[in-house]
Amino acid sequence: MRVVRRRDIHIIGGLRRAAARVSVPSILPISPPADFDRAVFDRLITDIGSDTAFEALALFLTETGQQLRRMDEMLAAGDRPRLKRDAHSLKSAAATLGFAGLSAAAKAFEAVAESLAASELRGLLSVLNRRFSDASRAAPQPPHDNDAARS
Q1: What CATH topology corresponds to 33-142?
Q2: Which distant-in-sequence residues (6+ apart) come within 8 Å of 64 by Cβ?
Q3: CA 34 – CA 100 distance, rounded (Å)
Q4: Which of 38, 42, 67, 85 has the most CB atoms in a 10 Å sphere around its CB?
């Protein structure tokens, strides 16, 4: 993957807005991945079943909002090790469900969680929040059970 250097930032989407406000670390991808990769989610459905995959998705969407609020509190408290662990957890969960853009932003955050200034991390946390909003909008809806509707 081609990466951005501070001296030649050309970032798109949500990353561009954050880059205008903070010094963006050199590990952010130039072109963030799509918000949702349906093929990844379809493989998950194949592996664990539709009901379980959609339950995992619903839990992820609920808990990630809470996790991002906790990360904001951790940043304010200066708890860098926990920030890094939460970013790692978010990166993995997002990737498993097909949210490549959110996973990439979490990976970038994890890489610099213990080294960047708080103001720069706040900008990256802002990117994480926007990518989560994008992911939430892109999330698939569970199929409707037509048999249950007819009963």
Answers
A1: Four Helix Bundle (Hemerythrin (Met), subunit A) (1.20.120)
A2: 90, 93, 94, 132
A3: 6
A4: 67
For residues 126-139, one letter each, b for 16 or more C-beta atoms within 10 angstroms of the residue's C-beta and e for the rest, the string is: bbbbbbbebbbebb
Domain ranges of the chain: 33-142
pLDDT digits (tens, 9 = 90+) for 85-127: 999 999 999 999 999 999 999 999 999 999 999 999 999 999 9
Distance of CA 2 to the CA centre of its chain: 19
Listed in sequence order, the residues at least 6 apart from 114 whose beta carbon sits closer than 8 Å to its beta carbon are 80, 81, 83, 84
- pLDDT tens figures, 15-42: 444 444 444 444 455 455 668 899 999 9
How far is Cα 96 from Cα 99, in angstroms, rounded to an integer? 8
Q: Answer left, alpha or beta for residue 69, where phi above 0 means left and psi between -120 and 50 means alpha.
A: alpha
Q: Which two tokens stand for residue 101?
A: 């853009």
* Residues ≥6 apart with Cβ < 8 Å to 131: 14, 32, 35, 99, 101, 102, 105
